[in-house]
Amino acid sequence: MIYAVTALSHIFRPPYYPREVFNAFVQIGWLSLPVVGLTALFTGGALALQIYSGGARFNAEAVVPQIVAIGMVRELGPVMAGLMIAARVTSSIAAEIATMKVTEQIDALVTLSTHPMKYLTAPRLLAGLITVPILVGVGDVIGVAGGYFVATQSLGFNPAAYLKNTVDFLETLDVVSSLVKGCVFGGIATVMGCYYGMQSGRGAQGVGQATKSSVEAAAVLILAANFLITGAFFSV
């Protein structure tokens, strides 16, 4: 927690490193788009099939559009995107920073009067806080589209009626909660990667351990944060 608050404070204090920020935006945001999009697409399609199959037992097949929409936007979209970011980005950040520590590049930054947290952590944290909610939003749309495609092409739903049910059922609070989750998950993923990279032990074993620990911590914290945020938004 102290590390995260300190890193957040460095975002707003000079000096700034625009090149590092740009590189972090590309690595965390743009290059993560394909894996997040594909994950959301197949998740939305599978969700539509499962809901239709389960609903058929109670003659409730018509609820597919509503449940796919709320399931993707409230839960599956943000969580799947967060876990994919943890798998791809957190591990990459931890391995990169741990390698820099092992090869004494971080000590070199200190020698050059460059604060490691300012140069390494703050740009990645900023990128995570901004790009991951965007990825979550894109993933939500693609996931709902995946459910729409399966429902209309395989399950016999009317396209216009499906879209109308989806739009009518979603509320502003659903979308807001999804984006808030994306922001929190992005912060968790980047902070865990940077923290464990900075705490890495020496040698290849230390780099491997830091990478593994960062992904484990990020995944568990993302799931825990998802539960807490869901409770905050939708508790009765």
Question: How does this structure look, described?
Answer:
There is one protein chain. By secondary structure, this protein is mostly helical. Helices cover 84% and strands 0% of the residues. Helix 4 runs antiparallel to helix 6, helix 4 packs antiparallel against helix 9 and helix 6 packs across helix 8. It is elongated and about 70 Å long. The protein starts with a helix and ends with a helix.
Task: Write a compact overview of the structure shown.
The chain is mainly α and 236 residues long.
Please indicate the percent range of residues in DSSP E strands (runs of 2 or more).
under 5%
> Which percent range fits the helix content?
over 70%
- Structural category is mainly alpha
Mean pLDDT: 90
Task: Please report the distance between the alpha carbons of the first and last residues.
Answer: 29 Å
Biggest β-sheet strands, sense, barrel: none
Number of H- or I-type helical stretches: 9
Count the strands? Answer: 0
From N to C, what is the helix and strand string?
HHHHHHHHH
Keywords:
single chain; mainly alpha; 84% helix; 0% strand
Topology overview:
Layout: H1 2-11, H2 18-28, H3 33-56, H4 64-102, H5 105-111, H6 116-153, H7 159-169, H8 172-198, H9 203-234
Helix pairs in contact: 1-6, 2-6, 3-4, 3-6, 4-6, 4-7, 4-8, 4-9, 6-8, 8-9
